[in-house]
Amino acid sequence: MNRCLPSKPFASGGALCQNPATPQRGLYGENAVTSEEIGKLQAYFRRVFGNDLLQVRARPKKDDSCEVYKEDEFLGVIYKDEDDDYNFSMAILDVDLD
To answer: What percent of the chain has pLDDT over 70?
Structure first.
């Protein structure tokens, strides 16, 4: 029996479905980011950017990614892909450049 998640429909109108017998690795089948990985990512960001104020935090409702902060300022999201690699995404608003 498949379980469909209509909250994430495809553009074609279908829904994302999963087989409940398959272990879920993330909310929608992606790899979940573990607390150990979050610690390693935080150490990496602090080392690369030379800033101990950087924090990597778990996301409240998603487990396939985590968030990067400088103190309480949100900087971006780190996504984990199916190959266990990471992608950091940071949006820069025009008002932030002033």
So the answer is: 69
